[in-house]
Amino acid sequence: MNNREHARHVRRTLPRPLHIAAWLTFAAAQAAVAQTSTQDSAATSATQKAPPQAAATGTAGTDQALPAVKVSASQVADSPLNLNTPVNSGALGTRSQLDTPFSTTVVTGENLAERQVYKLGDVFAGDASVTNNSNAYNAWATYITIRGLPVDWQNGFRIDGNPFISYGITMPYEQLERVELLKGLGGFMYGFAQPGGLVNYVTKRPEKDPVTSLDVGYRMDGVLSTHVDLSRRFGPDDMFGARLNYTKEAGKTYNAGDINRNSVSLALDGQLTRDLQVWFNALYQTIRSSGQTPAIYTGSYTASSLPAVISGGSNLLGGTDQHINTNLQLYTAGVRYQITPDWSFTTSGSYSKSARDRNESTLTLLNQQGDYTDARWNGDEGHQDVYWQGMFEGKLKTGPFTHQLVIGGAYQHQTNNYALNSIYTVLGNGNLYQPNPWRFYSGGGLETYRTSDITQASAFVSDTMQITSRWSVLAGLRYTNYSQNNYATTGEKTSQYSQNGVLTPTFALMYKLEPNTTLYASYVEALEQGAIVDSIYANGGAMLRPLRSRQYEIGIKSEHERWSATAALFRIERGAAYANSDNVYVQDGNAIYEGVEAAGSVRLGRSWQVAGSVTLLDTWYAKGQSYNGKRVAGAPTFVAAGRVTYDVPYVQGLQLAADAKFTGSTQVRPANNLETGGYMLVNVGANYFTRIGGHDVTLRAAIDNITNRRYWMYQYSDYIAPGDPRTVSLNAKIDF
Q1: Which tens digit of pLDDT belongs to each residue from 266-299?
Q2: For residue 592, which phi and psi values (nearest 5 degrees)?
Q3: Which of helix, strand or coil describes residue 42?
Q4: Which pLDDT value is given to residue 627?
Q5: Beta strand pairing status for 712-716 and 423-431?
C-alpha cells in the first residue's frame, strides 16, 4: 500500500479517550465524618458531604497559587471526571481541567484507595487512552503508553510539578492526593520530553482540619502493609501546617518474590503574612524486591505468532537471585507572594535523587515452543535532578480584552550514572513452561561513573486573551537552550550535543458553549532528547539527535451535576526511531498517530454511577525507508473501559463496584509481523463505611483480573511480558 492509498485508508474517525471515570463514590461521605466535634454539627450530620478542603496556605509547585476555598456540606462535589479540579500545567500556570485546551485526566487519592492501586497502569485503568505495559514487581513498573506513545521515563514524570527519574520507581500511592495526566505533547509546558504525555504525582498536604488515620492492608500472596497519615495546623491563626505519611510494606508477592518497602513523605507550609506563603516537601522511599518476572525480548524471534501465554503470577521464569532495589529522594521548597490582587510571583526549587541496584534477566525468545536464552545483567545506576522555576501570573486589560498572563523561566540539570563494572553474561537456555534452571547471585555495591549530563535553561510566556464572554485565545512560547554531554569511564567527554534558541510554541482557541462546557482547538510542538542507543543494537552507544513532534487537537469538555463528558480528535506527528532490518537503531521518517477519544460519566437515580471511556487509534510510519504505511509498534487500534458502582440502599455505607477494560491487539515490532492479541480484564470491589467506637472505619476489598485471564502485554518495542494474574487485596482504615 503506497502513502496516498494509506492516507485514504486512514480517513476515518480516530481515537480519543472517554475520560477516566474517576468517580465520587464516598468522597462525599468522608469529609463530613472525618472531622472532630469542633465542626458545626449541622455539617457533620449531612448525608451528602463534600470532599476534603484544600489547605488555605500554599501547596507545592504551581498548585500553590490556589486560593483558600470554604467548603460546606451542602455543596456539590466534583464529578467523577474531576473536570473542575485544578491541574499543574507548567508554563500555563494552574487551571482546571475544564479550562485546559488539551486532553487531561485526574485520578483522586480516594479513587486510588478504593481500587487499591499498586502500579501506574492500574491508576489509569478507567482511561481508554492509556495502555498498561508491565506488571508491578520489576524495573518496568511505570511503563504505560498514552495514545500509543510511551511516557518518557527521564522527562515525563513529576512530583508536585518537580522532575525526577522514574525508571524502576513505584510510587507510594496511598500518600498521594491525586495523579494528573497530560496527554500528548508537553514541550511548551515543561520543555524537552517525548510526546506521549506527562504524569504528575501530587502528594498529600496539610488540611484545614486535623487528620489522624491508620490503615492496614493485605495483597496476595502474602504482602502486608501499614500506613499512617497525620496532619495538623498550629500557630497563631493556624498559620503553619504539617502533614506526615509513613508506609511499611513487606511480604511475598504473587510470583513468589519478596518485597520490602519503606516510604515517608513530609509536607510543611506557612502563611507568614496575608500575601506571603512558603512550603517545604520531602519524600524518601526505599524498596528491596526479588523474584521479579524477567522481560522477554522478541528481536530474534521468527515465528508469526507468540507462544502460548503464561501467567504473570508464575515463578517459572526467575528466582530470588533476581532483584531490583531502589531508592528515591525528593526535596522541594518554594515561596509564593501575592504582589497585587491580580498578580503573584511563585518560585520553587527541587533536588531529586534516584538509585537502582538491578540483577535482572532478559529472556531472548527463540521459537514458538517457548525456548529462550537467559542473559543476565547486574549493575547499579543513579540519577540526580536539580530544578528551579520562577513564574509571574496575573491579569491585565488592553482595551476591551482581558489577558491572563504567565511569564517565567526554568533551569534543570540532570546527571546520569551507570555501572562502571556491570556484569552481563549469558547463563544458558531454558523454556517458558519449565522452571528456569539458572541462578546468578551478586553481592551488590558495584561502582558507577558519570555517563551523561543534560542541562536545560528556558524562558516562557503565555497569554490567554478573553475576546468576549465566550471566546478566548491562548498563545504561548518557550525558548530553550539545551545541552547534553556523554562521558567515557575515564571521565573524558566522548560526545556532545547542544542547541540554543529552541522554540516550542502552542496556540489554542476556546469557546464556552455554556459556563460548564468548553469547546477548544489547540496546536503544540515539542522536542525530545536524542536517545543513546541500547547495546542490543548494532550501533549500540550511538547518540541520536533530538526529535521534533507536533500535535493538533479538537475537543470538548462538559461538567454537570449528574453527568460529565469529554471528547477529542487528535493528530500527532513524531519523528520515527526504530531498529531496521540490519538491527541498526535509526531515526527515519515520521510516526503518525490519529485518534478519537471520548469519555463520560452519569449518575442514575440515587444508587448507580456509570462511567465509560473509548479510544480508536490509527497509526502508521510515513516518509521513511523501511516501514512506510505499517502500523506503529505499541499502538492498539481499539481500547474501551467501563466502570459501574452501586450504593446498596439497604446496607448504609456499602458500595459495590465492577470495571472492565478491553485492549485490542498490539503490534510488537515496526515490521508488523508479530502482535500480542486482544484481551479483556474484569475487576470487582467493595467498600464499606461505618463507625465503630465513635471512629470512622473503612473496609475495602478488591479482586483484580477476577477471571484470571492470561495475556501477553506489549512492554516496549520488541519486548513483551505476561499480564498480572488474579489478585486479591484487602484494607481496613480507621480515622481517629
Answers
A1: 999 999 999 999 999 999 999 999 998 899 999 9
A2: -110, 130
A3: helix
A4: 87
A5: unpaired
CA neighbours closer than 13 Å in the CB half-sphere of residue 549:
29
- Answer yes or no: pTM beyond 0.85: yes
Greatest extent of the chain over all pairs of C-alpha atoms, in Å: 77
User: How many separate domains does the chain show?
Assistant: 1
* Strands 493-514 and 471-487, sheet pairing: antiparallel
Distance between CA atoms of 134 and 546, rounded to whole angstroms? 27
The residue-averaged pLDDT of 172-188 equals: 92
Please tell me the predicted confidence (pLDDT) of residue 445. 66
The DSSP annotation for 208-256 comes to SS-EEEEEEEEETEEEEEEEEEEEEEESGGG-EEEEEEEEEEEEEETTS
**Host domain of residue 367:** 3-735
For the purposes of burial, counting CB atoms within 10 Å of the CB of 47, is it exposed (0-12), middle (13-18) or buried (19 or more)? exposed
For the chain, how big is the Rg over CA atoms in Å?
A: 25
| Adjacent-strand bridge partners of 217 | 225, 731
CATH of residue 465's domain is: 2.40.170.20
Backbone angles phi, psi at 434, to 5 degrees: -130, 155
Closest CA to 220 of 733, 729, 686: 729
List residues bridging with 568 in a β-sheet. 555, 597
pLDDT tens, position by position, 306-354:
999 999 998 899 888 999 999 999 999 999 999 999 999 999 999 999 9
- Identify whether 160 is preceded by a cis peptide bond (ω within 30 of 0): no
**Residue with C-alpha cell 528551579?**
388
Distance (Å, whole) CA 706 – CA 543: 45
Contacts of 264 (CB under 8 A, 6+ apart): 244, 245, 246, 247, 283, 284, 285
